[in-house]
User: What shape does this take?
Amino acid sequence: MLRIPCPFCGTRDHSEFSYGGDASVEYPALEAPAEAWLEAVFQRDNIDGVQLETWQHLHGCRMWIVVERDTRTHEIHSVRPAHQGLASALAQSADPVSES
Amino acid sequence: MTATRLAKGGYIDRDQLVNFTWDGRTLYGHAGDSLASALLASNQQVLGRSFKYHRPRGLMSAGVEESGALVTIGRDDHRDANVRATTQELYAGLVAQGQNAWPSVRFDVGSINNLFGRFLAAGFYYKTFMGLPPFEWGSGTGMWMRYEKIIRKAAGMGTASRSPDPDHYEHAHGYCDLLVVGSGPAGRSAALTAAKTGLDVILVEQEGILGGDTLAQPQAADNLAEQIKALKDVGVRIMVRTTAFGLYDGGVAGLLERVTDHLAEPPTWMPRQRCWTLRARYTVLATGALERHVAFGNNDRPGIMTANAARVYLNRFAVRAGENIVIATNNDSAYAGAFELAQAGASVQILDARKSIPDAIRAQAADAHAALRTGAAPLMAHGAKGITALDIAEQQAANWREAGKTDCDLLLVSGGWSPVVNLLSHRGVKPVWDADLACFVPGQTNEPLSMAGSAAGVWNDNACLLSGQAAAERAVTHLGGAQGSTATPAPGGWQGAITPLYEVSVPGRQLKSFVDPQHDVTTEDVRLAHREGYVSVEHLKRYTTLGMAADQGKMGNIIGLALMAEALGKEIPQVGTTTFRPPYTPVSLGALKGRNVGNHFRALRRTPLHEWNLEAGGTMTMAGLWHRPWYFARSGETIGDAYVREAQTTRRTVGLCDVTSLGKIAIQGPDSTELLNRIYSNPFAKLPIGKARYGIMLRDDGFVMDDGTTWHLSESEYFMTTTTAHAGKVMAFLEELLQTRWTDLRVHVTSVSEQWAGVAVAGPKSRQVLESCVENAAAVSDANLPFMGVLETTLKGKVPCRIARISFSGERAFEVYVPSDFGPDIMDALWESARSMNGCLYGLEALGALRIEKGHVTGAELDGRVTIEDAGLGRMASDKKPYIGSALRKRPDMARDNRPRLVGIFPRDRREIFNAGSLLCAPGHIEGYGEGWITAVTHSPALGHWIGLGFISGGHSQWQDKAVVCADPIRKGNTAVEIVSPHMFDPDGERMYG
Assistant: This one.
């Protein structure tokens, strides 16, 4: 079982979360051509090492987060809110939610 | 073998006599006994029959690695097969039976297999069932099909009960700073050291009492009780009868707590076992080491066990396992036991495979008055059902030669020790071969995890204490505490070096030497596998089944590796080792499932109208996790009668249906319109306030995700409904879009599925029903609430409600939503009114009939492979705006003319019935996947015959007036059908709009 440190709730079992997908994908604008969408939706690297993933704390705060995880060891290097604004706000917060 | 219970010593209570039954005979032991020690004290020698050859087997160990004494405990439905007698605590009335034997383990007809060993060698199953030599005659014939049953019966273990498990189990969750596995010297010192610094420590021990290896030693000046008290005093949480069976990511350990397996009369409220998910911030594995056997002739005979096992029986259970004892060793560890057994009155001879041994060890042998032969080892055991004598071999240059024979009734073997690295192996850490110690020691890991004591290859007690202490200090430092000062002791600690010894044989002598006794794998099997081309240990394991029995290679793996290495001319580390995987010891399926059985297998969702529906005579069915009304049968009606009547009544007068399970999402904020316009394929930008619109959502890849109606409530607020099945998925997708892609949109989405109870009021008289229930009847007039109109008003009794005039049934219909708590009251009012108009309640079956007649799609059609055009809804896809999926839905393959399209299906002979799930094929081409498939069928009350919905290549226009076969080969056979428009009833919607 992975233990994921949710930036809002603290460390929780991965069974509370649902896996989203590749967090490094930049989704194109809706009006972008099919080729750009094809790239974003279907083309995925199969990374042997550290990758960025989106997860949702489905059975918790329901926030989407970006998890930096090593596919070889399942080690989680960092976690931040997927929403950039929230991520910056949390980084500036004087009292971040502590782990454990 | 003549075992004797000693008059004093041990951790047993001599005042408490405990009766138990072994193969139908009543025997006695003491409180504190294991089943094994009680059987041993009662001089029961043959306790099992082996897997293939039905050879007699007795106790081989005193612990979890036991491969001989596998027994069945309990009777009838409470029967538990393949229990190691060594780990079963004795209780009054315990019933144990030998297994894999008829009529009994002492006299077993199946032992005739022993004579046919040649045919039962490695790869037996592969060879016989594939007709390989020497079984060519068995190939391709029906003979083996019949023999297989007999063979499977002959080879095997205990028999499980065929009834449902009568016991109950539970799951538990725990947290701690430090988990210590094992309560031997290292584990106890680790737990104490860490707890003293204030850490929250859990100490787990698989046995019923704490002590680990300390229990195998004489009690003398032992202060075990004081040490245990000290652990409790500093607040260590102690869990006995608890096995850490697996280590997982993130410091998670799986623990199996055997709560009542040791109790004569377990209270009914107690679970039999409890499966723990424990999250530890640091873990210390003080799991000890297991003593190894050596392969020699008949090394599986009853009366041959590990040297340490005899020490456990002697010091923990006060049973001297024999009188005339030979100890065969290749290391120092067996000498302490020799002295203790001699003290207890046995005569002892020692065969030490080493040529030279240190003087101090020699002195120990002398203290035991034991005859000592160096450079000697056991060659072959004599005796049918227990060892009576032993042929001895002596080392000559690189070989062994026969060197005499001695009588004995107990042979103790020490082939060295293997640290229990299993749990570390679960973390993907490969053990490292230590040639000096002739064992695998733990490899390095970066995880918050340490091995301590003999599990780290540290052999003597004082060093084990330090090892535990050092591990605890590492834990304290890792968790932010002070730096420790204890140096980690190096592995080893014997005075004389071990001489590796895996097999003893002499040229020209045929011996049956077992490597993995539990699966009857012999040294010859390993060599045969090598001759037949198996060079990898992973293949060796699967071909010979070495290490695949219930002990998972605890007994035999190292010997097997050594033999393979020898055959390949390599060293053991080059041959490698197989990976240990969870569980460390067997875990019952019952414990893994916990309480998730029967109705509790998955969550159950009930609508606020659940009780109301039941009281109204509804029969419920599962729709995903939801319980929904299926049909409301009146007296004498079958389900078929009921739904046809309900559908008919709804079209004639009015019907009410609980639609609460639909997903409901509140969409609020100034950019709500923009969000909807981007997510739905059809335009939402100009939906007026007070109107609802049917919308279709696609996925990024352009396929249909879901459909539903969204109601415009106010400038910045919408109420979205989704299908029951996709409610969660749509909600999560909206959240994903707003939090990851469209972070600039000022919209908040909230699931309100649980907050609103919903009722569909459908049929020509639906408006009259509503009129009688709302406070202001004029509010629901056709003018004020036209088709797709939305209204927030109050029902009688000042109940706030939302009403939209939308229709799934194809009739004039309304969906009425009220806050959940008001659901039953509103249903009362609606039903009173509907009943007065000869209306009905309808369930899911009638709902299905009504929507199939209309060609309305649900999850059965929108299965994730369907485009908006396939579903016949292409006109809803806007070309004037971009939206989710708009780019990729235009891929060439998705515009193919011959894609399967939604169609209606009639039987050619209108009296015929056909089934959902059938394939649609062209006549004469009933093959492969056909031309399409049927998703839903119903008897149509409106049309008077069976109809269906489905998909067929090219759709209605391609197959109009052509013959089509509905192929259903394993149920009903073929039916001639015709393809029609999916809008089978009232295609222009006059009833709905009118």
Q: What stands out?
A: The interface with chain A takes residues 248-252, 277, 279, 281, 428, 446, 678, 700-701, 732, 735-736, 739-741, 743, 882-884, 886-888, 890-891 of chain B (CB under 8 Å). Chain B is about 20% helix and 25% strand.
